[in-house]
Write a structure and sequence with these properties.
Elements: E1 7-18, H1 20-30, E2 38-45, E3 48-55, H2 58-61, H3 64-68, E4 73-81, E5 96-100, E6 103-110, H4 116-125, H5 135-147, H6 153-161, E7 169-173, E8 178-182, E9 191-194, E10 200-203, H7 206-211, E11 215-219, E12 225-229, E13 232-236, E14 247-248, H8 250-255, E15 261-262, E16 265-266, H9 267-281, E17 288-291, H10 295-307, E18 315-317, H11 334-338, E19 339-341, H12 343-346, E20 350-355, H13 362-373, E21 378-383, H14 411-418, E22 422-425, E23 440-441, H15 443-446, H16 461-470
Parallel strand pairs: 14-23, 17-20, 20-21, 21-22
Antiparallel strand pairs: 1-4, 1-10, 2-3, 2-4, 5-6, 6-7, 7-8, 8-12, 9-10, 9-11, 12-13, 15-16, 18-19
Helix pairs in contact: 4-5, 5-6, 9-10
Length: 471
C-alpha cells in the first residue's frame, strides 16, 4: 500500500482563442504524478463547452485524434484524478459540467471536504439527485444553489465557501470567466502564472505553469478567490485569514514534483533538508546512501551530504510500468517489475535506504528483500516522514488506522517486519523546517485536526449509500 493524493487541476484563460486543449494536455501531463486513474478537459469556445474525459493516463485518454476534435477556445479546465472519495469509474471523472437556469459551469477540484457527507445529505433531502460519488459534485451543487440567488458566479462561489469545510483547491469555468479558489486553510497548493502571449495559467503546482512556457506569478492565498475575466484579474480576499493556514506538509515530503515551488518553498530543497535532518536524528555507519525513486532520491542526497556517506543509485525504476500494466501471473512481485536493485552498487555493502513513508509495510518489505537479494550486507531504513498514526480527511488516501503499521507496532517491531537492520523516522518536531517555518497540517502524524472529524470516513461511503438504496 502506497500513499496517494487525490488530484491535480489546471486552467487556461487567454485574451484570444488559442489551442487551449493542447495547452491543458501539456499541463496535465506535468501534473500526472498527482493522479493516474482518470483525466479530463473542458474547452470554452465563446460560451460553448467541448469536453472529453475517461479513465487512464493523460497520454492514453488524449490521443492526437481526440485533441484534434477540440475547437480553439479562450478558456479551458483540466483535471487528473486519484480517487480518495468515490470509486474508480467514468462517472467520477472530472471536470464536472453543470447546466443550470443561469448558464453553465465546469469545475475541477483537488482535496476532500471534511463535511461532505453532511452537505450531501442535506442536498439529497432537498431533492438533489447525485450522479457521481465524489466530493466535487457536492461543491458544484452548492455553488449552483448560490448562483441562483446571487448576481455573479464569483459571488456564488464566495457564498459556497461559507459552508464548505476541509480541503478544496479548485478551478471553475463559466461562459465568461475562469475562477480559481483555495480553501481557507490552504491544505492543497494552487498557483498561477502567465505566458508570453498573455495567457493566464492556473495549476496545482508551479511545474505545470513552466511546462507550458508560463512564468510563475504567485501562489493563490488560502481563502482567496481569483477571477479571470473581461475586467482582467480580480482578487477577492473576504475569506482570507479566517482560518489558520494548514498546508499539507506531505506535499513537500512526497506529493509534489521536486521542481515545484509551493508557498515560496522549493520542494527539492525541502526534501534535501529532510535528509539532513534524518542524518542528524538517526546516524549510522554505512557505505552508501540510496533513495527509493522518485521522491526518496532528493532526501538521500541530503542524508549523504550531512553524514558524509557517499550517495549512489541503488534502485532503478521501470518508467514503462504504468497503471495499465497487466501482470501475467498473480505470483509475480509487482515491486520487482517496477523497481530493480543495482547489484554493483549495493553488493556486500551496508546501505542506508531512504523512502518517503511506510504505510502498511508491504512495499517496504519487498524493497528491502530486493536489496538483500542483490547482496546488500546491511539495510538501514530511513523515512523522510514521521510514522503515520492517524487517518487523513483532506485528500490523502489514508481513511483508517487499520492498515497503518506504525499505529500497531513499535519502530523496532516494524524494522523486524520489513526486514531492515534498523529503522528511523523523521522526528515530528522538525517538520516546520521543511515548510520554511510556515504553519502546516500534520494531523496524520500526530492528530490535532484543523476541522471537525467527519462522522463517516470510509473512502466508499457514497458508493455504499447508492448500493444500499438498490437493495
Amino acid at each position: 500500500m502506497s500513499v496517494h493524493e487525490e488530484c491535480g487541476v489546471f486552467g487556461v484563460f487567454a485574451p484570444e482563442p488559442v489551442n487551449a486543449a493542447h495547452l491543458t494536455y501539456c499541463g496535465l501531463y506535468a501534473l500526472q504524478h498527482r493522479g493516474q486513474e482518470s483525466c479530463g478537459i473542458v474547452v470554452n469556445d465563446d460560451g460553448v463547452f467541448s469536453s472529453h474525459r475517461d479513465l487512464g493516463l493523460v497520454s492514453e485518454v488524449f490521443t492526437a485524434d481526440i485533441l484534434s476534435r477540440f475547437p480553439k477556445g479562450s478558456m479551458a479546465v483540466g483535471h487528473v484524478r486519484y480517487g480518495t472519495t468515490g470509486g474508480t469509474s467514468r462517472k467520477n471523472c472530472q471536470p464536472i459540467e453543470i447546466n443550470h437556469q443561469k448558464g453553465r459551469m465546469a469545475i475541477a477540484h483537488n482535496g476532500n471536504l471534511s463535511n461532505a457527507a453532511l452537505l450531501r445529505n442535506e442536498l439529497e433531502l432537498g431533492g438533489a439527485i447525485f450522479h457521481t460519488t465524489s466530493d466535487t459534485e457536492t461543491i458544484a451543487y452548492i455553488v449552483t444553489k448560490e448562483r441562483l440567488k446571487r448576481p455573479s458566479i464569483e459571488d456564488a462561489l464566495s457564498g459556497a465557501m461559507d459552508v464548505l469545510d476541509g480541503a478544496y483547491s479548485l478551478v471553475l469555468m463559466s461562459p465568461q470567466k475562469l475562477i480559481a479558489a483555495r480553501d481557507m486553510y490552504g491544505f492543497r497548493p494552487l498557483c498561477y502564472g502567465k505566458t508570453a502571449d498573455g495567457t493566464f495559467i492556473i495549476a496545482s503546482e508551479s511545474c505545470a505553469v513552466k511546462a507550458v512556457g508560463g512564468e510563475f506569478i504567485r501562489d493563490i492565498e488560502p481563502g482567496e478567490i481569483l477571477v479571470f475575466g473581461k475586467n482582467g484579474v480580480v482578487s477577492r480576499k473576504e475569506h482570507c485569514g479566517k482560518k489558520p493556514k494548514r498546508l499539507c506538509v506531505f506535499e513537500y515530503i512526497y506529493f509534489a514534483r521536486p521542481d515545484s515551488v509551493i508557498d515560496g518553498v522549493s520542494v527539492h530543497l525541502s526534501r534535501v533538508k529532510a535528509g539532513e535532518l534524518l542524518a542528524k536524528a538517526h546516524p549510522v555507519l554505512a557505505d552508501i546512501v540510496i533513495g527509493v525513486p522518485d521522491s526518496g532520491r532528493d532526501t538521500a542526497l541530503g542524508y549523504s551530504r550531512a553524514s558524509g556517506i557517499p550517495y549512489g543509485i541503488g534502485l532503478i525504476k521501470n518508467k514503462y510500468v504504468g497503471r495499465t500494466f497487466i501482470a501475467p501471473s498473480d505470483r509475480l512481485d509487482m515491486v520487482k517489475l517496477k523497481l530493480s536493485a543495482v547489484e554493483g552498487a549495493v553488493k556486500g555493502k551496508s546501505v542506508v535506504l531512504i523512502d518517503d513513508s511506510i504505510v502498511r509495510g508491504t512495499t517496504s518489505r519487498r524493497i528491502v528483500r530486493l536489496l538483500r537479494e542483490a547482496g546488500a550486507r546491511e539495510i538501514h531504513f530511513r523515512v523522510s516522514a514521521p510514522p503515520f498514526l492517524h487517518p487523513c480527511y483532506y485528500g490523502t488516501d489514508i481513511d483508517s488506522e487499520d492498515n497503518l503499521i506504525a499505529a500497531r507496532h513499535t519502530t523496532e517491531e516494524t524494522a523486524a517486519i520489513i526486514g531492515a537492520d534498523s529503522l528511523g523516522y523523521l522526528p515530528t518536531d522538525v517538520l516546520s523546517e521543511l515548510s520554511g517555518g510556515q504553519n502546516f497540517c500534520s494531523a496524520c502524524f500526530g492528530g490535532g485536526y484543523p476541522t471537525e472529524i467527519p462522522s463517516d470516513t470510509r473512502k466508499d461511503r457514497f458508493e455504499t449509500r447508492l448500493s444500499d438504496r438498490r437493495k
